[in-house]
Amino acid sequence: MSEANKQQGLMEKLTALAKRRGFIFQSSEIYGGINGFWDYGPLGVELKRNVKNAWWHDMVTTRDDMVGLDCSIIMNPRVWEASGHLGGFADPMVDCKQCKGRFRADKVWAVKVQSKAGVQVLGVEADDEPHARQAAEPALAKIAKKQGSADVLEVLSADVTLLQPDLAAAFACPSCGQMTLMPARKFNLMFKTYVGAIESENSVAYLRPETAQGIFANFKNVVDTSRVKLPFGIAQIGKSFRNEINPRNYTFRSREFEQMEIEFFCRPNESAKWYEYWRDLRHKWYTNLGLKSSNLHLREHGKEELAHYAAGCADVEYEFPFGVSELEGIANRGDYDLTRHQEFSGKDLTYFDDEAKERFVPHVIEPSAGVDRTCLALLCEAYEEDEVEGEKRTLMRFHPRIAPLKAAVFPLVKKEGMPEVAKAIYRDLKANFPVYYDEKGAIGRRYRRQDEAGTPVCITVDGQTLQDQTVTVRDRDSLQQVRIDKSRCLAYLKEKMGLI
RNA sequence: GCGGGUGUAGCUCAGUGGUAGAGCGUCACGUUGCCAACGUGAAUGUCGUGGGUUCAAGUCCCAUCACCCGCUCCA
User: Fold this and answer.
1) Cα separation of A358 and A350, whole Å?
2) Shortest CA distance to A206 belongs to which of A215, A193, A188?
3) Environment class of residue A413 by beta-carbon count within 10 Å: exposed (0-12), middle (13-18) or buried (19+)?
């Protein structure tokens, strides 16, 4: 089997396990599902919550220079004009049915030529009409030589097919020359809705395509109310929506997804330093969750990849079975966003630096992470098959910090008072963490069931417990068992999770 | 969006136009003395969905939806 096939097999096994154990379900599955939307089941929601809590704990709670925020999903549409989401990303495109090429509609031109042989259409790709005519010249010369004359009747941009789709038949593909272009379509990836009961042009609104803009829009509010001083960050976790053309790779590219974003504001002359700081810190953070550093890559964007306003950008990438893909982007966005919002809102978004006695628009570093992508990476990373005494075993090697269940408690057998002791331990632990109690069937089966859920330890009450108050603690990864006093269970778990 | 593939029980999958199945899992009872033990029994199906052909459709035809792969896209 090739490496690619093996990797593909891994995704299939992983999606089967995720379904079987209640990590991830297809959204509205009983109605046939809906493309690009996913639900988290009982184990999945714990995993996801653990990821978000770890991020919030590490990026907000334990830091002195960060405050949190939770913005609405629907905002004044002017926000998206200022951010550029409404303008530049709605370029109409045309596709060729024949050669599968895709072109920006305003760059595809039809040059209609009249000769003795009749009217024919030349398809060219050019920035504007003069360039289109220029590009058509060699072909024109050829026709003129053959037919004696070649007169240009009309030069048309494929833009017109946006309003008049039937005109698409009058265009030739600039790549293959066939008359097989489809009408232009807009690729605006924001979900549109209407605010209020009446659907009119004035009531159009959008579901946010990123959480970041809510932070910029509230910059002044936070500065005015929170006594923050540069450099400081504003953090937010929340849902975002993008009407992706082609959702793919399980939950990796969904139309509804959750982001963990920070806008870290700093003095302009310190932005390069802070950019490096956040890039490296965020890269390292994923290893704390249990992602192997050999599967994590930090990829610095080349100059040609950068947005015009960005001074630097790096992606934290993970080696998924379906390829190396982005978990988080860290960008040095300069003062672009605040300046834009200042222009569009007419409100002053400058910061007054009391030390230097000067007023300026802060620069910003944006570490923007995907919650669902991180969860998917953790699932991929954790999945493992090994062999125990000749039997195949499937287990999820989650770091105890993010494991959905922290422990399971079993009586070795369902008699002699063992269930009562086990239940008491379970109640005690359950008050602190998600813990599972199970007394059904053979002990081996119960262990294996927890292995698939990724539960780090199983605590078993046996005959000896009744004598000396000790229980066995079985480790998911090593299968080693140790005896500890039953009163130490909580401390043992906390230690495992790195809490003490 | 284009092309190819797939869709039957919770999972993995058999199923020749003629009574919907298996393995695993789940549940109940019994048994149990540390790694998917055993016995007995049980539940679970819009055969993705909607049409059509046929005496009869899981099976043939059409449409549609979802998933996977390749291209494309990815602020």
Assistant:
1) 10
2) A193
3) middle
Structure letter (DSSP) for residue A59: I
Instruction: Quote the CATH superfamily of domain A405-496.
Output: Anticodon-binding domain (3.40.50.800)
ipTM for the complex? 0.87
Q: How many CB atoms lie within 10 A of CB A59?
A: 23
Q: What residue ranges of chain A are covered by domains with CATH 3.40.50.800?
A: 405-496
Q: What is the pLDDT of residues A397-419, one digit of tens each?
A: 999 999 999 999 999 988 888 88
Q: If you measure CA to C1', which residue is closest to nucleotide B2? A: A100
DSSP string, A380-436: HHHEEEEEETTEEEEEE---TTT-S-SEEEEESSS-TTHHHHHHHHHHHHHTTS-EE
Nucleotide nearest to A463 (CA to C1'): B33
Topology (CATH level 3) of domain A3-89+191-338+364-380 = BirA Bifunctional Protein; domain 2 (3.30.930)
pLDDT tens digits for A111-156?
A: 888 888 788 888 887 777 777 788 788 888 888 888 888 888 878 7
Chain B bases having any atom below 7 Å from a protein CB = 1-2, 7, 10-12, 25-28, 30-38, 46, 48-49, 65-75
Distance in Å from B10's C1' to A439's CA comes to 21
Whether the predicted model's global pTM rises above the 0.90 cut: no
